[in-house]
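Hi R.,

Quick one: here's the Winged helix-turn-helix transcriptional regulator sequence you asked about.
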Amino acid sequence: MANEAKHVTEQCNAALNAIRDTLYVLSGKWKIQLIVILRDGPMRFNEIQRALIDITPKVLSRELRELELNEFVIRKVYDTFPVTVTYELTPYSATLDPIIDSLRKWGVQHRERIVESRRSSEERLP
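And here's the predicted structure, written out as tokens:
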């Protein structure tokens, strides 16, 4: 029995560690949004900032740097005048597709549930 409990605890700890790693890499409200935006192809910094609307240049720069460090984004510098810098997804970023798709599906389902719940609440009011 003690071995069984230890085994379950080790599995649980391994699962928690994997989830912690995932959350560490994808933490914050911008990283997944950045990955989704870059799915359409390479973009320049200002294009990304316009697409995300509320992100500050400082935060965008930090988020792109972290995504680059974790091998989800490639920063390409072109020898033009002025210098052109683009950001694009790496092939490795495609490993996030099932996660992002699941988040999207859950988000749609959750929004529908909340809207329906509020609609039902309003209908019950006198």
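The helical segments are 2-26, 31-38, 45-52, 57-69, 97-124.

Cheers,
M.
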